[in-house]
Amino acid sequence: MAAPLLQASIDIDAPVEKVWGLISDLRRMPHWSPQCRIMKPLGPLRPGTRTVNLNRRGFLFWPTTSRLTEVVANEKLAFLVEANNSVWTYELQPTQTGTRLTESRHAENGTSAVSNALVNAFMGGVPSFEDELVDGMKASLARIKAAAEN
C-alpha cells in the first residue's frame, strides 16, 4: 500500500540558480535537514550516483544509502533511499519574486516492512514519524531560504 505523500513548500526571494546551487551540493544536506548528519555523494551529480548517509533523531543514529534518480539543473533533484523505498524530491519553480521550492517524500509502493517495524519500535510509530518528517521539511526549507536570501 502506498504511503502518503509528504510535502512542504516555501517561496524564496532568490533566483532559481542560487537555490539550485544550495540544494544540489549534497554534502550541505546536514546544514538544511534536522535529521541528516552526513550525505556523501560517491560520484558526480547525475542519475545513478549513490550517496552514503547518516541520520540522527535524539540518541538514535542510523545509516542509509541512496541513489540519485533525477537531476534536472535548476528544476528537480530526486533520490531514492534504498532502505525504505522512499523517493525524496526537491522541485524548483521560478516565481515573480524568486523561487518556489517544494520538498516531497513519495513512497508509492509503501515503505519497507523492516523500515515500518523499526519506526514503530523506536520512533513512536509511522504516523507521528511522518508528522515529524513534514516538520523537518519545513525546517529544511526555512534554512535553505535563509541561506539563499543572504
TrEMBL record:
User: According to the lineage, what is the superkingdom?
Assistant: Bacteria
What InterPro entries is this protein classified in?
Answer: Polyketide_cyclase/dehydratase (IPR019587)
Task: Please name the Pfam families in this protein's record.
Answer: Polyketide_cyc2
This chain belongs to which protein, by name?
SRPBCC family protein
